[in-house]
Amino acid sequence: MRPELPPPIGIDLPGSFSRSVFHERHPVLVDNLLGDFPYPPHIAEALEALLAESLTGTVPPRTPGGPEIHTWHLEVSARIGQPWESLPFLWAESYFYRRLLRAVEYHHYDSPWCGVDPFAPQKHAQLDGPELRADLDAYAALSDASAADRRRAILLASLWGNQADLGFRTNNPGADTSVGDLVADESEALWDLAEAPGEAPVIVVADNAGREITADLALVDHLLETATGPVELHLKPHPYFVSDATGQDVVATLNALDRDPHAAVRDLARRLRDAVRMGWLRLRTHGAYVHPTDYRTLPSDLAEEFAAAKLVILKGDLNYRRLVGDLQWDPTTPFAEAAGHFPGPVAALRTAKSDLAVGVDPARLAKLDAEAPDWRLTGTKAVIQVHPGHD
């Protein structure tokens, strides 16, 4: 018998982070969209109506269009008439973005806005920004580093790249994006699994575009060099949360790397393109990555892929919430207890940007709570946590 899980994190508690996402972040997000695109009146009105509904309304009896419609029909049917503020945070946030895509007619094949990524301007701005310039300069400088230092730097760049999450920055434009400190560091266990003998793939489940996917591609390149099997990079099938990475974002990133003044960066792009052409690097996606559920309800085909992998590396806060469940865990709950349901070996690279926490040493937790009570929300604490899978 499975142990009873904690209750889900909701969006109804005044002063909570999850509530602020709806009452502070989403209004700024909608303003940004209306500023980035010359949307016609009916799309602007649909966005404003969605925002108002999400603050004071209930779930209407209509399934948002687009792919994975059967899953969404079942999910929405079970919640028709429920007030938004009574919804679980993970579900409500996913539903908001699905409805946002409907409002901007992303999946409307008879609309000129079909396929126009509403977050593209924000993603592309990162590819031309000074922070990415500094990242690429640092990457090029690794040519002179020892193998151990290079490996460590590439892993940490992928981890801290998650600070560049555009959703996080929507209402935190001045957030501290200097590298913080690790609350848990099981990086050696990650490498032991990723570099173990065998031809099974290492799967990297990406989170965000821009600076983060750039760092993730450097990690993928390293894995292609050191792992003994292929590498799969799993992406979203379409835009989801603000900066979630799609295939289009990977292509845009490679194009940007091709133009870099550093030969080492251009060589990185060339190696990655060659790896895709040769089948060593496989770009994949799955509808489950845009479902409003956690990884306890994985579709059987994706669960089988995860089970067959040498290691699955889950990037970012959203993947972490899906892995352990967006639940009111005691932060000292062992990571293995929260993630033990996963069908195979899994590593989480997560920068903390929501209330959720597990696997924190009790003494460290007491110190963190005393010195910085909001440590879970600032993006300056992170974890590298590993569960080796079932015996």
Your description of this structure?
- The protein has 16 helices and 7 strands.
- With 391 residues, the protein is α/β, with parallel strands linked by helices.
- A 7-stranded mixed β-sheet has the order 1-7-6-5-2-3-4, sandwiched between helices.
- The longest helix has 20 residues, at 17-36.
- 42% of the residues are buried.
Could you list some keywords that capture this structure?
single chain, 391 residues, alpha/beta, Rossmann fold, 2 domains, seven-stranded mixed β-sheet, globular
Strand and helix layout:
Blueprint: H1 17-36, H2 41-56, H3 69-77, H4 89-103, H5 120-127, H6 130-141, H7 147-160, H8 166-170, E1 181-185, H9 187-194, E2 202-205, H10 211-226, E3 231-235, H11 247-258, H12 263-278, E4 281-285, H13 300-308, E5 311-315, H14 316-324, H15 335-339, E6 346-351, H16 362-371, E7 381-387
Parallel strand pairs: 1-7, 2-3, 2-5, 3-4, 5-6
Antiparallel strand pairs: 6-7
CATH class wording of the largest domain: Alpha Beta
- Ends: how far apart? 18 Å
- Taking strands numbered 1, 2, ... along the chain, how are they ordered across the largest sheet? 1-7-6-5-2-3-4
Rounded to an integer in angstroms, the radius of gyration calculated over CA atoms is 20 Å
Give the averaged pLDDT, no decimals. Answer: 92
Q: Largest beta sheet, briefly?
A: 7 strands, mixed
Please, what is the CATH homologous superfamily of the largest domain?
A: Uncharacterised protein PF01937, DUF89, domain 3
Structural class: alpha/beta
What is the beta-strand fraction? 5-15%
Instruction: Output the CATH topology of the largest domain.
Output: Rossmann fold
Number of helices: 16
